[in-house]
Amino acid sequence: MSTTEMPRNPGAPADGPPRVPSSTLAPPRRQRRYGRLALAGALVALFAVGTPAAWVYFSQTVSVVGLADGVRYGKQITAGDLVEMSVPTGSGINAVDWAQRDSVVGHFAVVDLQAGQLLPTGATAPEIKPAKGTSIVAVGVKAGFLPAAELAAGNAVRIVAVRSTPGTTPADPTNLPSSIAATVFSISRQAPDGTTVVSVVVPDASADAVARLSAAGQAALVLLPRG
What we know:
By secondary structure, the protein is α+β, with helices and mostly antiparallel strands. 19% of the residues lie in helices and 25% in strands.
């Protein structure tokens, strides 16, 4: 019985497997590796060039005004209250330039300023004026009718009509509310009779009533919590 042999590809070894056409072979891995190395090298070079430039930009600073001591609302700012501080260039932080520090000396704080903070533009004013529709009234407050806690400009208070001595009535009681909301503007030293004069900001409609209470010695101040 005879057998039929399968034809072989030309050039194939007699005792080996048939050759696979070169067009079906995968490209050498070495070429892929060289491509990845080239890309990595380009990224490293880009990073090496960009990093120093970014470091130089963010390491540059400008001098601005900071607070060496806290300044309460309504208090005048002195040169000793200010200190030089540095912030990164282009940071966008709102602060008065150190070169302009003399422009705020002698101004009044329109907000409470804390020691160590930067001084924002607009946080001071040459003078403090009551807002439209309000008035500043001086109130003489007798000892015992003033909170034991230290008052400061900007404190929120209530002015309450009280009887100073037995048998007396509040001044013009028919024209007085039970209490009047106010904001402390300034505080004077205590007088020899124990009376402390507190200037307060009140609505125009309440200004006359507060003045009458003060004149009658029948005003008491209630200190309200902040916020």
